[in-house]
Amino acid sequence: MHVIDSHTGGMPTRVILDGGPDLGSGPLSARATELSEDHQEFCNAILFEPRGQAGMVGALLVEPIDPDCVTGVIYFDADAVLGMCGHGTIGLAVTLAHLGRIDIGTHKFETPAGVVTIDLHDNNTVSVTNIESRVVHPDVTVEVKGQGTFTGDMAYGGNWFFIARSPIEVSAEQIPPLTELAVQIRAACHQAGLAGPDGQRVDHVILSGDSPCDAVLRRNFVLCPDDEYDRSPCGTGSSAFAACLAAKDQLAAGEEITLESVIGSSYQLSYQPGSAGGVIPRITGQAHVMADSRLIFAENDPFRSGITL
Ligand code: PYC
């Protein structure tokens, strides 16, 4: 299986160029459902140790339905298939440029959440114009046993986020307590029955803090479905964040801000108004290719399907 690994602001993406399961030719959302329901062993083998690494997101290339798209792509982490992935899209664009499959300029990728547009500015720098993002439930309060109440917004940016102010300093030293609290908040959201219009549950949590850098609006800790933290500022999370800022009149259309991840990598973020009352976010970040390799799944390898203990 031919894979290319990159990282976007420290967050790894593994693009799978061949050897993935046949998911048919239906809508990408149906193919994503099939991947999550019928091919868990494949996902585990790609992302879990010993082949994968903590936090890594897989990007399975598939045939797009929209003929204007360069490729279709289904993203997945070690726990869930994702509707969209911003850092993965930046990593995929840089990977396709590394392979000579796209040139500097504008291209489209089809994802289960919809078609996204990318501008490849140079071999490492990419802007992603995401799908329309929106606040789903503003100002919701959830109770976390032993920790008190947390008020935040449920918002959609290609995945489903609960976004609250962090009571803990958002810094690399605080990653373990931030992770623990975010896991508890996500469980509280589930327990409270917080859901999107079709019952979608919160799958990511953002604990938003201050940055030591004046030019940065916020430093955000982002918990992913697999309980890993996003090393990048999270593209779909930044999109959901933009929708919240816009809804509160805290960011005007076209105004550009900088968001940081918990490890200090950054994205530029702006938006234009969407047609359905939300926002169309644009995120700019950088990715670097790290490896161009072939994965081997030997029949006699006891950890052929990854370490799933
Ligand atoms: O960048 O959208 C993102 C993302 C989702 C999960 C990990 N990264």
CATH architecture of the largest domain: Roll
Distance between the termini: 24 Å
Based on Cα principal axes, name the global outline.
globular
SSE arrangement, N to C = EEHHEEEHEEEEEEHEEHEEE
CATH class of the largest domain: Alpha Beta
Uncertain segments: none
What compounds sit in this structure? pyrrole-2-carboxylate
What strand line-up does the widest sheet have? 1-2-3-4-6-7-8-16
Radius of gyration: 18 Å
Structural commentary:
The relative contact order is 0.18. The mean pLDDT is 97. The chain folds into 2 domains: 2-129 and 289-294, Diaminopimelate Epimerase, Chain A, domain 1 (Roll), CATH 3.10.310; 134-283, Diaminopimelate Epimerase, Chain A, domain 1, CATH 3.10.310. A hairpin with a 2-residue loop joins strand 1 and strand 2. The chain starts with a strand and ends in a 15-residue tail after the last strand. The chain has helices at 28-38, 40-47, 86-98, 175-191, 235-247, and strands spanning 2-8, 11-16, 57-62, 71-76, 81-82, 105-111, 114-120, 125-129, 134-144, 148-156, 160-165, 204-209, 218-223, 257-261, 266-273, 279-294. The protein has 309 residues and is of the alpha+beta class. Strands 1-2-3-4-6-7-8-16 form an 8-stranded mixed beta barrel, surrounded by 4 helices. The longest helix is centred in the middle third of the chain and has 17 residues, at 175-191. The structure holds pyrrole-2-carboxylate (PYC). Pyrrole-2-carboxylate (PYC) binds at residues 11, 57, 82, 85-87, 159, 224, 230, 232, 234-236.
